[in-house]
Amino acid sequence: MTSTTVIDVDRLNLSYGGFHAVKDLSFQVRKGELYALLGTNGAGKTSTLETVEGHRVADSGTVRVFGRSPRERRAVRSRMGIMLQESGFSPDLTVKESVALIGALSRRDDAVERVLDIVDLKRKSDTKVSQLSGGEKRRLDFATAVYGRPELIFLDEPTTGLDIQSRDALWQAVDKLREDGSTVVLTTHYLEEAQQHADRIGLMHKGTFHQEGTVSELTRTLPATIRFSLATSAPAPLPLLADGDGDGKMFLIETFDLPQDLYILLGWAHANGVELRDLEAGPTRLDDVFRAISSD
Ligand SMILES: Nc1ncnc2c1ncn2[C@@H]1O[C@H](COP(=O)(O)OP(=O)(O)OP(=O)(O)O)[C@@H](O)[C@H]1O
User: What range(s) does the ABC transporter domain occupy (predicted)?
Assistant: First the structure.
């Protein structure tokens, strides 16, 4: 563990009765990183995060947050902002009262108006929680992560139920928090958001990491694809190994060097006067990595 390590999980094990939900899991999150903990349903993400947040006790292994046990609530909790899947604000409180309550509970300093502005709920300040829409409730949940600019922020499926504008606004706010030095741990099933925003990803499956690394480290394990069709049969043999669709007109090329193979294919088409119809060159996406592990 170095001075820049914010979270240090070492050989964590968690069980429910006889069911071993998290198995010897180790990872670290460094200061300023956005670390995405992703995985298949039931992989153990929530159980792991609950332990890191100090809500659950490990069966074995150690968890350190800012170098201390997350169970040391006073020392550690005031430095964390946790946006749960549902915060459970009292339905009878107004939005403004709920945000003020976050301040009181977190013991962090901030101005309620500033937080309302960031989560775009100023116009709803005096509205009761029970009268908010699903997306507005989600933005109120986000206030728990924003209030007092916590050093460590947990975002548990933060954009579920948000429209595209609210999503963009949330990610802008997260970017701003990161500029101010916050470290972020994200879980989400929206893989394109993780692909776009995460520095590193821990990909869980059946209680352990299937892979861990940057987006490019994860996606480089699978080939990218080039797809096209030909209007007529090819006048010369294709320059690359391709799968056809049976009638010889649709082709799929799998490649670990997309720019190079695209260059070769376009050069071949040009030299032979061939029209490549419906040409699509797609880099490997996290979805592809996911599909590969889900079929294990
Ligand atoms: N209180 C509990 N009692 C028994 N089993 C549990 C309990 N909580 C979780 N589990 C089991 O532990 C495993 C991991 O659950 P967990 O909620 O950590 O997964 P997850 O990765 O967050 O899943 P999801 O993406 O579906 O939310 C699952 O198989 C789940 O059924």
Answer: 7-231
How many Å lie between the centroid of ligand 1 and the Cα of residue 20?
10
Cβ of residue 16 lying under 6 Å from some atom of ligand 1: yes
Token pair in block for residue 257: 């060097």
Q: Is the pLDDT of residue 136 over 90?
A: yes
Could you write out the DSSP letters of every residue in 135-187? HHHHHHHHHHHHTT--SEEEEESTTTT--HHHHHHHHHHHHHHHHTT-EEEEE
Query: From the CA of 178, how far away is ligand 1's center (Å)?
Result: 30
The Å distance, Cα 45 to ligand 1 centre, comes to: 8
| Model confidence at 58: pLDDT above 90 | yes
Q: In ligand 1, which atom is closest to the CA atom of 50?
A: 18
Region 32-40 average pLDDT: 95
Q: Whose CA is nearest to atom 7 of ligand 1?
A: 16
Ligand 1 centre to CA of 153 (Å) is 22
ipTM: 0.97
Say yes or no: CB of residue 44 within 6 Å of ligand 1: yes
Distance CA 286, CA 292 (A): 10
| Mean pLDDT in residue range 285-296 | 80
Please, where are the H alpha helices in the chain? 45-52, 73-77, 95-106, 112-118, 134-146, 164-179, 191-197, 215-219, 258-272, 286-294
